[in-house]
Structure formats: C-alpha cells, structure tokens
Amino acid sequence: MIEAEGLAKRFGTVAAVSGVSLRALDGRITGLLGPNGAGKSTTLRILYTVLRPDSGDALIDGISVTRDALAARRHMGVLPSGAGLYPNLTARENVLYFGALHGLARADRRSRTAELIQLLEMEDFADRPARGFSQGQRIKTALARALIHRPRNILLDEPTNGLDVMAVRSLRSLLQKLRAEGHCILFSSHVMQEIGALCDDVVVIAQGRVVAQGRPEELRERARTESLEEAFVRLVGAAALEAEGVSR
Amino acid sequence: MGGAEGTGTGARSAIWRVFSKEFLENLRDRRTLISALIFGPLLGPLLLTSALSLTFRGAGAQSDRPLRLTVAHPEHAPELMAYLRQYGVRIRGVDEDQAAARRELAAHRSELVLLVPADFGSRLQAGRPSPLLLFADESNTESARGVQRIAAIIGQYGTAIARLRLIARGLDPLLTVPIVLQPIDISTPAGRSALALGTLSYLVLLTMLMGGMYLAIDATAGERERGSLEPLLTLPVRREHLIQGKILAACAYMTLSLVLTVTAFAVALRLVGLERFGMSVDFSPRVGAQIALACLPLVPAGAALMTLVAAFTRSYREAQTYVALVLLIPTLPLAFAAALGLQPRAALMAIPSLGQHFLILSLIRMQPLPASYVALSVCSTLALGAVLVFIAGRLYRREALLG
C-alpha cells in the first residue's frame, strides 16, 4: 500500500508538486492521471525515493520514504520513464544485476529471472545484448528488472509510452495478473483510454495538486458527465481556473 | 551497516556487485577495450621508441654525412678549399655576390654558402684578419649543425696558420694557450638514458589514466544518458556504494592498462636496444614491476577524479571534453618539473603524480630514493584518493545527479 501525505517539491522557483496526498491500495490498480507537466513524474519520483520532498511524507507498506528510503525501496518495483538498459548486457544479465543489488542469493535470482522471462514472454531475446532492442523488448526487460525482488508495490511512470497496440495489451494483461496476485500498482499516464480500461482508482493531478480522487465512475458522477475524458477535462480545467484566480 | 540503512544490501557486496557488472560490461565494449587495453598501452612505447631511435639515428648519422658547402669564389682561397676537402667537405664553387648567396639560401638550393672576398689572400699574406662570410639559416637545426662544423674546421685552419706565423717569428705557439679547459662528462650511461627517457614516466602515467577514462564516463554520464541511472537509484543500495563500485571498476581498468603499458615499454626498449647508443637502460621485469608498483597509488585518485567529473556533466560528450582536460592535471606537475629542472625533495615527493614521476626516474636511473620519500609519496597520493572518493560519494547523493 502506498500512502502519500502533503508532498511538496520545488525546483528553484517552480513548484512542481504542492501538497499531493494520495492512496494506492493492495490488489488495485491506481492511475495517476494528469496533463503533461502536472507533477505526475515528480510525485512518482518522490514515492520511489529518487527525490526528497521539501515537505510531506509517504509510506510504502508503512515505511517512510523520507526516514528509511532504503527499506522503502525493498518494497517497491519501479519502472521509471525511459527505462534504460545496459546495452552490452543481455536482457537476462540486466535483470540479474538488479537481483544482485537487491541482495538476492545467486540461485534465487537465477530462478526468479527465468520465471519472469517466462511470465513476460521474453524467451526470444532473453540472451541477446540489449543493444538494439525494440521499445517493447526494452519495457519488458525493464519490467522484469523491476519485479525481480517480488515487490508488493509496483510504480510505473508512463509505461505505455512508445509501445504498439500489441505491447500495450500484453502490458495491460500483465498488470491485471499482478493485481489478481494482490499487488498494489500505481502508474501514471496522460492517456485517458488507458486509465479507463485498466484502473480501479484514479488520482487526477493538475498544477501540482490532486484535483480529484476516486473510482472512474465516481469521477464521472462528480463532473456530471458520461465520459471519463469529459470529466478529466472539466476537473483539470476547473483546477487551472482556480490556479489563475490564485495568481491574480 | 546499521540504523536507518540497516536493510540495505551490505556495503561490501553492493560495491563488489557494481564493480563486477561495470568490469564485465566494459570488457564487452569495443571502445573501452581498444582505448584502455590496446591503443593506450601500445601508443606510448611506440611513440617513445620511434622518437628515440630517430633522434639517435639523426645524431649518429650527422657526423658521417658529407657536409655540402657552396663557396662563392673558391679561387680566392685555394689552400682553405683543400683544407676543407681534407675534412670531407664537398665544395661546389659558384660565382656569386652577397645578394645572390642570400637568394641561393632562400630558394633552398644550398644550406650553407661561404663567401670568400677578393682580398682574402692579400690580407692573409699581410698578416691582417681576413673576413669570410658564412650564410646559413640557423633556425634550421641541420644548417645550424653545419655552421658549427664549418666553423670548427675553419677555426682549426686559422689556428694552424697562427702557429706557423709564431714559429716563423721564433715564438712558442703554446704562449697563446694560457689555459686549457677540459670538460669531463661523468654522466653514467644509465643517467644519460634517463634524460632521454624523461618522457617515459609522463607516458606511463597518462596511459594509466586513459585506461579508466571511458569506463568512468560510461558508468556515470553514459548511465544517465541511457536512462539506466534512475532505475539504479531505486535499488536498496546507498549511492556512495554505487559510485565506489564504479570507481573501483575504473581502478581495475587503469591497473590493467598500467601493467600492459609497462610491459610494452619493457619489450619495446629491449627491441630498440639503447645499448647501441651507449645507454644502458635497466628495464628488467623487476624494474618494470617496481615502476608499476610506484604508479599504483595514483590509481584511486585518478579514477575518483575522472568519475567525479564525469558524473556531474550534462552529457556523454561534455563528459568526454572535461575528463580529457582532467587527464592533463596529473601531467602538469611533470611538465613543471621538466621545465624547472626540479630534483626530488620531501615537499615535492608529497605532490601526487610528481612523486610517482620521481620514483620512476629513480628506478630507471638506478639511484634509489630514501624510503621516507617513497612512503611520503605513497601516503599523500593515497590520501588524496581517499578524499576524492569521499567527495564523489557525497556528491553522488545530490538530487542534481539525475540531471
């Protein structure tokens, strides 16, 4: 479970995130939805402990990301945007390296890697150097790498970026499988259909603040509209107007 | 391991795992491999030995080569011409004035032009100083050497005439030689070699640093540019340990490069055979091993410095530029030492890279330095390495790292 309370982060004079609170529950897929530059990545980066919040805190399975980042990281599997691999290592070696740094015993990380290669259907390219992988192959490898230590919480930053339809579908079914196993999944996206198709809960973020949080149906009701997209536009639009009012 | 960090992967095993991955991955990278283990170690010895043998060939061949001299109006001094020919000077007679002589040189038709004035013979007979004009472009080393040789021969000729005059007047020619200065060269063959091999330590240290350069860049700036840094930072490993593993991998490549370079030097110098030039270079495997050992303390400092610089550049390209500049820093003290003719002193031994330079020279010269000097150099260099590793660890904790 992921619980964030009042996260704030400034870069110079720019407030990237100001007071984000959210909850992502086990056995559910939570979507972090927002326009570009809304603060989705910053929020995730604070949650996966690459950035420290200026104020606020988040708990990963009850462990504070500010007070015990290392312990919190053990409970998270992370797929940052970009998902860079080591080009001279094979997909398998890329995954094994992360297993080693998680402190898994050799036999354990080998069997777990083999398991993930099967789960993610990576057999074709598992033993090829990552140099020259397609975007789909890269994401799969990065995902296997993120899951090597069987984390309960999985954070993904725009995981479907650059994927073709087939790859998106297989990612979607994988996330559903992980949900069924009781994982807590938090992923960001600016693509409405993705959120609608996949998420149990949605956190809408705009201008560095959470403007709405709930199940997709609830959001539609709140915005008094039938389509999630319309709801999103209204919620984000209202936040933008409000922010303008504040600045005036 | 303890306290809030208690759940992290053990420091030593984390550093070791980062190290072995970086080591393995770069072993598969052709660029790293070529620069660290092939190009660098071979280039230095090749440069030095070819420069050495060219220099010696040039110096050795020079005195045997017949000297070509263009003489304007040789008919004014037939005896001098005969004297010059005795010394192997090849004379080409022309009929020119001063302006023509200058043109002759400018057009590179001749290197040396001697102009004999029409009154040369008559002045000589009258016992008055007889000028001769020697034209040459002395900015050209070949011509400058020619001028020296001609001057020496003509000087001898002049002295011979002077002695004959004194004898003709019943005086002892030795009266004109009140003092005889005899320079005695006490440099040993090994010492002379050390002079010529002064660049050796420079090349060894530079190659050693270059050995770790690509790895240092790839493991930091490269890692960020590929987008693999951020996932790495989400692992339960302290950032200091990540960068320490990377520095350690750069150290390993530098050490490999160092050993290969010293070996290549040993082989190359043996092949060139400096003994032929009256130099004895003791580059036995034992001395080679000692030279490698002398350089070793500089490895951590160099690796940490390059990693540090590469980690805080914005891109791979920028990292290449800055690290290449950083490579020059350890070679600066060497340049100063050479320019100022510095000799080993305690204070100088404590300067990293300069200390190593003196150690290498002392090994080649077979003039051991006091143990305290060696200890001072090793300790101060290792201390600098430790400080740089510490700084790298502190800076790697900053958020700006992600760029």
What would a concise description of this structure say?
The complex is a heterodimer of chains A (248) and B (403). Chain A is an alpha/beta fold and 248 residues long.
Describe this structure as you would to a colleague:
The complex is a heterodimer of chains A (248) and B (403). Chain A is α/β, with parallel strands linked by helices. Chain A is built from 9 helices and 10 strands. In chain A, the strands form 2 sheets. A 6-stranded mixed β-sheet of chain A has the order 6-7-8-3-9-10, with helices on both faces. A 4-stranded antiparallel β-sheet of chain A has the order 2-1-4-5. In chain A, strand 1 and strand 2 form a beta hairpin. Chain A is globular and about 55 Å long. In chain B, strand 1, helix 3 and strand 2 form a beta-alpha-beta unit. Chain B is elongated. Chain B is mainly α and 403 residues long. Chain B folds into 2 domains: 9-56 and 190-402, no CATH class; 67-184, abc type-2 transporter like domain (abc type-2 transporter like fold, 3-Layer(aba) Sandwich). The chains are: A alpha/beta (248), B mainly alpha (403). The A-B interface holds A 48-52, 67-68, 70-71, 73-74, 76, 78-89, 97-98, 100-103, 129, 142, 145-146 and B 4-10, 13-14, 17-18, 21, 24-26, 28-29, 223, 226-238, 399, 402.
Q: How many runs of DSSP E, i.e. beta strands of chain A?
A: 10
Rg estimate of chain B, integer Å: 31 Å
Shape by Cα distribution of chain A = globular
Low-confidence stretches of chain B: 1-8
Strand content of chain B: under 5%
CATH class category of the largest domain in chain A:
Alpha Beta
